[in-house]
Here is the input.
Amino acid sequence: MNSLKVTVRQAKEEELPIVQDILMQTAGWLKSIGSKQWNGILEGKDHHDTPAAIRRGEVYLATVQGKPAGMFVLWDHQSEWDGELWGIDESQDYMYLHRVNIVREFAGQGVASKMLAASLEIAKDKGKKAVRLDCLASNDYLNKFYAGAGFAQVGVAKDHDAGEQTADFNLYEQAV
Here is the structure.
């Protein structure tokens, strides 16, 4: 299962169309299974300002034999969203992981685990204390996945308005 050689690196500006395609594929797949999560992406909304995030070096692309296999965004500061969920933290001790996406062709092959491990290494290299992330409390698969990857659930944001829906979000953290 984890035998694939996955390379994780910062996305380049010219790779914006690849990153956007991965986001669209994931949003479409989520919609096809009945989720409202990330529907905004399908409507052309980009709350993460992906082009600027790539320029700042916050978007990471995972590849397998040079082929795009996934992507994620890793911020060394809180977004407005993070501040709403976690409370304002000006310590600069944490990195915030968002938009973990797997190209469907590579789902279930260990790519996501390797991307999580890469995010922890990046945070460690930047002298951070931990990586934080959130996910829908109702998504059993993701909650089990993050817990199985060593992230500890440290809280719940109840009835949070995520734009596409109001839901509970579990808050996870892993020390580096």
User: Anything to note?
Assistant: The chain has a mean pLDDT of 92.
